[in-house]
TrEMBL record:
<dbReference type="GO" id="GO:0016020">
    <property type="term" value="C:membrane"/>
</dbReference>
<dbReference type="InterPro" id="IPR006634">
    <property type="entry name" value="TLC-dom"/>
</dbReference>
<feature type="transmembrane region" description="Helical">
    <location>
        <begin position="94"/>
        <end position="111"/>
    </location>
</feature>
<keyword id="KW-0472">Membrane</keyword>
<keyword id="KW-0812">Transmembrane</keyword>
<feature type="transmembrane region" description="Helical">
    <location>
        <begin position="222"/>
        <end position="244"/>
    </location>
</feature>
<dbReference type="GO" id="GO:0005783">
    <property type="term" value="C:endoplasmic reticulum"/>
</dbReference>
<protein>
    <recommendedName>
        <fullName>TLC domain-containing protein</fullName>
    </recommendedName>
</protein>
<feature type="transmembrane region" description="Helical">
    <location>
        <begin position="181"/>
        <end position="202"/>
    </location>
</feature>
<feature type="transmembrane region" description="Helical">
    <location>
        <begin position="123"/>
        <end position="142"/>
    </location>
</feature>
<feature type="transmembrane region" description="Helical">
    <location>
        <begin position="62"/>
        <end position="82"/>
    </location>
</feature>
<keyword id="KW-1133">Transmembrane helix</keyword>
<dbReference type="GO" id="GO:0055088">
    <property type="term" value="P:lipid homeostasis"/>
</dbReference>
<feature type="domain" description="TLC">
    <location>
        <begin position="55"/>
        <end position="252"/>
    </location>
</feature>
<dbReference type="Pfam" id="PF03798">
    <property type="entry name" value="TRAM_LAG1_CLN8"/>
</dbReference>
<dbReference type="InterPro" id="IPR050846">
    <property type="entry name" value="TLCD"/>
</dbReference>
């Protein structure tokens, strides 16, 4: 009979045996938050929801789950970075707390993949691959592998709550408001610091540390993490450019606003 231990050993992910329950619980928690949003959001925003059609209400609830996940993960990632013991072995060190946080995110990606497949007509195949990529990168951490540096990739989510706020404000009719302007500025600043400044610098340190123990790292890890790091770095720069253009369109400078008195 195949046991959980034998599966973990076959996958060469020994610490997974301590955290698979957390992955399942996280997936269940995401489903609960989604259902709570379905029940409560129409009551909290009745005027907005009466105009929603088709996929829009579902998309709202998906954004609610995304907001909850990104907020929790961002705060938790900072705590991992302050873990002095884990910092002593940044590549192969293990922390039960860090692994638990990764399990919560891993469970979210399981839920996200299910939703992406379920609503592939609206989200597109790209979101399916996005969810799978996020799941695989975190799943390999149960070797254990880069439990310290993994927090940097999760910290990318620090800008996601503000991105969700921006989406919510569009649906609530607050497009172009001062509140959205403030949120947009915070979004761009957080995105730039977390994904560009800190992200690029920590990626540089990560590969220096990995190269120092290169003979101990399987080829598949080089492929998965190398590809993920390069792709996300390019995407972060591309998305940052899109955000700047979007902010300029929503809030044009006064010099570009037509003078109504002429």
């Amino acid at each position: 009979m195949i046991s959980l231990d034998s599966i973990c050993d076959f996958l060469e992910l020994p610490t997974l045996r301590y955290h698979w329950q957390e992955i399942l619980l996280s997936t269940l928690l995401c489903s609960i938050i989604f259902e709570l949003s379905r029940c409560l959001s129409p009551l909290l925003f009745p005027k907005t929801f009466q105009y929603f059609k088709g996929y829009t209400p579902t998309n709202w609830h998906i954004h609610v789950v995304s907001f909850c996940h990104s907020t929790m993960i961002s705060i938790g990632s900072i705590i991992i970075l302050m873990d002095g013991e884990l910092a002593k072995n940044k590549i192969f060190g293990y922390s039960a707390y860090a692994a638990t946080l990764y399990s919560l995110s891993c469970g979210y990606f399981v839920w996200d993949i299910i939703q992406a497949i379920r609503y592939i007509k609206y989200q597109g195949i790209g979101m399916v691959f996005h969810g799978i990529a996020g799941f695989v990168v975190i799943f390999f951490s149960y070797r254990p592998f880069i439990n310290y540096y993994g927090s940097i990739f999760l910290l990318y989510e620090a800008s996601t709550p503000f991105l969700n706020f921006n989406w919510f404000m569009d649906k609530l009719g607050w497009t172009g408001s001062k509140l959205q302007l403030v949120n947009g500025i915070i979004l761009i600043f957080t995105f730039f610091m977390a994904r560009i400044v800190v992200g690029f610098y920590m990626s540089y340190l990560l590969w220096i540390d990995i190269y120092a123990v290169k003979e101990l790292i399987p080829l598949r890890y080089w492929i998965v993490y190398g590809t993920a790091n390069v792709v996300t770095s390019f995407l972060n720069v591309y998305w940052f450019g899109l955000m700047l253009r979007s902010l300029r369109k929503r809030f044009p400078s006064k010099s570009k606003v037509p003078n109504k008195t002429t």
